[in-house]
Amino acid sequence: MAALFRAADLPAREPAKKHCHPQWFAYEDRVSRAASDFSEPLQQVDGTHIRLAGRKLIYFGGCDYFRLSQHPIIRRAVESGMREHGLNPAASRFTTGNHQLYERLEAELGSFFRTETATLTSNGYSTNLIVAQALQGSFSHALIDGRSHRSLFDSTAYLDCPVIRFSHADPAALQREIRRLPAKATVLLLTDGLFGHNGRLAPLREYLEVLPPRSQLVVDDAHGAGTIGRHGRGTCEVLGIAPERVIQTISLSKAFGVYGGAILGSRKFRTRMIERSGFLRGNTPLPLPLASAALSALSVLRSDRSRRAQLQRNIGRVQEQCPDCIYPPSPIIGVHPRTIAHGGKLSEHLLKNGIHPPRIRYEGETDYFRFALSSEHRPAEIEKLLGVLRCCDAFA
Ligand SMILES: Cc1ncc(COP(=O)(O)O)c(C=O)c1O
Fold first, then answer.
1. Are residues 102 and 235 in the same domain?
2. What distance in angstroms lies between residue 63's CA and the mean position of ligand 1's atoms?
3. Is residue 257 within 6 Å of ligand 1 at its C-beta?
C-alpha cells in the first residue's frame, strides 16, 4: 500500500521538501490511503468544517452546495417522514411499493424544473442507466463527451449501437465526428450539463445546432440542478434551452442535500421508461423519509433564493481575484498539479493553513484537487483558500 505523498516518493532535490515539517509526513501517512481504497473517513463538524484524524479543518469538498443536508427543516422532514410513513415500502412501485409521497415529489419536481414529467429514481447514478434502457435500439450511434460522468459511460452498454467519444466540451470536435457518420445516422448525444470535476458547462446550444435531425440529447445535470440558474433549474436555464429539447437526469444528493435522482422529460418518454426499463420496474424506490426530505428541500430552494444569491457572491469573490480558475456560475475550482511533488506541496500547505485537501483520485487518471464553494463559506475561508492556492502557484 503506497501513500502518494510519502517523503520517499518525492525526488531527492525536490525544493518543496526543504521546508516540509517532518510531522506533516507522519500526518499524511495517517490519512493517506492506497489509490485502490476508499478515501479517509471524514466527520462533519458544521457547514464548512470537518474533522480528519483529530484535526478540525475547513472543508471545500463534496457537492452539498447549499449545505441543505444539515438544514433543520430537512432533518425534521426525515424524522417526520420516518414517523408517519416508515422506512421502506419494500416493493417495486409496479407491485405494491408505490406511495403518495413519490407522486407528490414527482409533481413538485416537474413544476420546479418546468418539465412535463419527472420520474423519481433511487439515486442519480441509476437515472442514466434507466434512460439508456428505455432508448435501447433507437439510435444508430451514440456520441459522448469524453469527460462525462461514469454513469453516462456505463449507460451506453444498454444502447446497442457504436459509441464514439468526442473531446471535452468541444462542439467542433462533435461536428467532426458527426461528419464521419453515414447520412442517415440517428444520434444520441450524452453529456454532463455542469461538469462536476472542473465546473464547465456543456455548450448545449452549439451541440443542438450541429446535431442531425431526429437526434436526441441526454444531459446529466446532477451538479447543475438546483444549483445554478435564476430559479435553480440548472444548466438548461442558464443557457436558455427549452427543457423539451433534452432529456435531463438529476441527482437529489447534491444541491438538494438529500438522496435520490429523477429523470425530467416528456410524458411519452416516461411511458417508454416504465414499459422498457428493467431497473425502473424492478428497483425498490427511495426510502420514504428521504422522499419527504426531498420535498422539503425543493420547497426551501423554491422559496429562499438567498442561498443561490449567496453562492453566486462567493463565486464572484473567487472570480474577481482569480478569473481563470473558475467558470461562473459554477462553484467548482479544479486544480491539476503539474507533478506529484507539486500536488504534495499543495496538500501540505492546505493542511498547514487548516484546510482539508480535497484530493480526487479516479482510476487511470492523475490526482487533482476539486474545491467546491458553498453558499455557507464565509469570505475569510475563501480568502484563506485563495491565499494558499496563490502561494503554491496552483494556477501556473
Ligand atoms: C454527473 C453525475 N452524475 C451522476 C452522479 C450520481 O449521482 P448519485 O450520487 O445521486 O447517485 C454523480 C455523482 O457524483 C455525478 O457527479
1. yes
2. 10
3. no
Single pTM value for the model: 0.92
The pLDDT of residue 9 is 29
Give the cell for residue 270.
Answer: 416516461
- For ligand 1, pick from 64, 147, 251 the residue to mutate: most ligand atoms within 8 Å of CB: 251
Name the β-bridge partners of 360.
368
Range of the domain at 376: 7-65+331-391
193 in Cβ contact with 248 (< 8 Å)? yes
Separation of 245 CA from ligand 1 center, angstroms? 22
Distance 220 CA to ligand 1 centre (A): 8
Ligand 1 centroid – CA 145 distance (Å):
16
Tell me the per-residue pLDDT of 160-211, one tens digit each, with 9 for 90 and over: 999 999 999 999 999 999 999 999 999 999 999 999 999 999 999 999 999 9
Whole-number CA gyration radius for the chain: 22
Of residues 27 and 320, which shows the higher confidence score? 320
- The beta-carbon contacts of 55-59 under 8 Å, at least 24 apart in sequence, are 55/351, 55/354, 56/354, 57/351, 57/354, 57/355, 57/356, 58/354, 58/355, 58/356, 58/381, 58/384, 58/385, 59/356, 59/358
**100 and 120 housed in the same domain:** yes
Mutate to test the pocket of ligand 1, among 198, 201, 253, 290 (most ligand atoms within 8 A of CB): 253
Question: Residues with Cβ < 8 Å from 230, sequence gap 6 or more?
Answer: 237
122 CB near ligand 1 (under 6 Å): no
Note whether residue 312 is domain-resident. no
DSSP code for 69: G
Question: Is residue 325, in this structure, part of any structural domain at all?
Answer: no
We report the CATH number of the domain holding residue 238 as 3.40.640.10
Cell numbers given for 191:
453529456
